[in-house]
Amino acid sequence: MPHHGTKPKLARMTSFRACVFFALMSATKLLAGPADFPGRKLVGINLSGIAWYSSNRPFTNAAKTASPWFSPGNPAAKLPCDDRGYPLQAPGEKAECFVLNGDYPSGHYILTWEGGGSVELNAAEDTTVREISRTERRRVYDVKLGAQPARIVLEAGISRPERIALWIPGYGPDSPEFAAEWVESLEPFGPSSTV
What integer is the mean pLDDT of 173-194? Predict the structure, then answer.
């Protein structure tokens, strides 16, 4: 007569074999590559969000990753902005945003904008920004980045600056939206679409 509260030996063996079979099949599927399962897609991981402080640099226009606009010298004092993200300022008022961190390459950066006012690139402490050419609504800077970020500083004129772009070295206004280096970094993950 079987003991109450215990499984018969055959039932325990069957449960054990089922667990081992399930574990082996799961491990086989986890270790198998795309050739073993052609419909399987590789997934990219650790893709960071878009932020000025991120090491992820997908865009040829670094201004797309800039911080929110703030009062000069006070990053905590966020400024009200229009529906396109540009600060609402009276003529002569200034605004700043962080744009380049130490993960960006040193080299020649091109700053362009439309509208009125003036726009400059500057930095503090161990980051150096040297203007090497100036034309109307276009500046070229030689930038050597350190630990401190570079900033875009704008001053409103009769009209405000807008469509501000800061092109990373090797790119300019006629460049594609995404940096070739970033697109190449995605190739191990299979076909990608950059919309």
Answer: 82
CA Rg value for the chain: 27
Greatest alpha-carbon pair distance for the chain in Å reads 99
At 101-134, the pLDDT tens digits run: 988 999 999 999 999 889 999 987 889 999 999 9
Annotation: CATH topology of 62-185:
Immunoglobulin-like (2.60.40)
Structure tokens at 183: 């697109």
* pLDDT computed for residue 46 by the predictor: 56
Q: What is the domain partition of the chain in residue ranges?
A: 62-185
Tokens of 15: 């449960």
